[in-house]
Amino acid sequence: MSAPIHAAIVGTGHYAPARVLTNADLEKMVDTTDEWIRTRTGIRERRIAADNEFTSDMGTAASRMALEQARLAPEDVEAIYVATCTPDMFFPSTACLIQATLGAKRAYGFDISSACAGFLMALDAAGAAVESGRIRNALVIGSEKLSAVTDWTSRNTCVLFGDGAGAAVLKASDRPGIRSSLLGVDGNLAEFLSIPAGGCRQPTSEETVRQRLHYMHMAGRETFKIAVNTMLGAAQEAIARAGLTVADVDVMVPHQANLRIVEAVAKRLGEGVMERVFLNLDRYGNTSAASIPIALSEAVAAGKIRSGNKVLMVAFGGGLSWGGTVVEWL
Length: 330
Ligand code: UT7
Fold this sequence. Notes:
This protein has eleven helices and 13 strands. By secondary structure, it is an alpha/beta fold. The chain has two domains: 6-175, 3-Layer(aba) Sandwich (Peroxisomal Thiolase, Chain A, domain 1), CATH 3.40.47.10; 180-328, Thiolase/Chalcone synthase (Peroxisomal Thiolase, Chain A, domain 1, 3-Layer(aba) Sandwich). The strands form four sheets. A five-stranded mixed beta sheet has the order 1-7-6-4-5, sandwiched between helices. A four-stranded mixed beta sheet has the order 8-13-12-11. It has a two-stranded antiparallel ribbon with strand order 2-3. Helix 3 crosses helix 4 and helix 8 (220-241) runs parallel beside helix 9 (259-269). The longest helix is centred in the last third of the chain and has 22 residues, at 220-241. The structure holds oxa(dethia)-CoA (UT7). Residues 32, 36, 40-41, 116, 155-156, 159, 193, 220-221, 223-224, 227, 257-258, 261, 286, 316-317 line the site of oxa(dethia)-CoA (UT7).
């Protein structure tokens, strides 16, 4: 019997747009304060993409960095999985647009829509394809231009989100990379976090625009409680399925939605876990599917993730959807 094929992360990259929007800037736009945003969320500033800068552009930039780190040329890429809830268009997929700008001539690709849990869903799917032997590598991207679907008159949401992209290169390996992946959804809670109009259920009309239904809507307080419980459950299950204990986790890279959510999950996971958490939400806010891959790439660049480390990623978002993934770093 031949040895099992594993899917290992061999390169990471990220891209953040140049424009910084601070809490002080938001104070001038809606009825909020820097103090409220910092104490309720931990966010200090976020990045906003330029008018002519799109999800595919940011995804391409993050991919170039990840490919360079992986020492892979665009022509070597076999598959492109893009997690996004803000695609350039309904179709063609953002993956097609990235394939073209990268010059990834041999790659197929498609988008995965699972809001903030999207990157872990994409990593799972791409990882399974690599492990099956059907492909030898895959580019897994999380990219979002949330500023395009943010209601800049609503303080309930506009202080939370930002733009950016992260990417990881998965490659077939004889040593474990992805050690476990636990995913879940509960569509009964779909209305907690959604963009109600613009799809076939409520096609865009003057009325939907007037009611601002083409923007993100969120039941924040309700979402908060479920986020903590599901992220905790996903983290515990992913750790157990990897055959590890919480003490074995070297670095935790959570979805960067709210510092209070991350702290609550880390505290419930166990003593000292918070010290092992990588955080960048103070600088980016919630970038949905881009959140974990940006943090992963920054953690690698900062030398916080090293060879042999067990890295726990955990996410939660619209769907509702969630995921926990344990990766052993090569
Ligand atoms: O990406 C994954 C999915 N999303 C999340 O995980 C987000 C989950 N939810 C949250 O992070 C938090 O619920 C929020 C940050 C959205 C809100 O924090 P909260 O502590 O749950 O506040 P709240 O919604 O209970 O609101 C408390 C008060 C309200 O005023 P009253 O009713 O107490 O008078 C709000 O109107 O804060 C008010 N408020 C604000 N005040 C100043 C809401 N937004 C703002 C704001 N500035 N931006």
